[in-house]
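Sharing in case it's useful to others searching the archive later.

Someone asked me privately for the predicted structure of Trehalase, so I'm posting the question and my answer publicly. Question first, with the sequence:
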Amino acid sequence: MRSLQTSGLVCAAGIATSLTNSGQQWDFPNGWAPLQHMIVEGLARSKLIEARSMAKEIAERWIRTNYVAYKKTGAMHEKYDVEKCGESGGGGEYVVQTGFGWSNGVVLAFLEEFGWPRDQSIDCIS
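And my answer, the predicted C-alpha cells:
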C-alpha cells in the first residue's frame, strides 16, 4: 500500500498503467479497468483499515471518470486518461474502442463493493 501511495501511479482519475509517457496505449497517462480492479480488490481484501480506505478512494475516482466520460460521449471506453477525470485514454495503434465490457464490469463491481452515497456528487472534483 505504501509503495503504491509513493509510486506516482495513483492519479486524479485512477491508477496509471506505467510512468512512461511513450504515446503507446499501455503507458502513461492511460489507465485500464482490469488494473484498477486487481489493485482495488487486493487493497479491499487487506485487513488494514487504511488499505480498504485507499481501495474505496481509487474505486470512487474510477467510477467518476467512467460516469463523466459516459455522460459526455454516451459510451464506455476501453481506457481512460487518469490525469483528467472524464477523458478517454489514447495512444497505440488504433482509435480508442467504445462499449468495452471490462469497463462496464469493473464499474459495476466497484459499485457492488462500495456503493455510492446518494448525497455524494458523482461529477469530477475540481
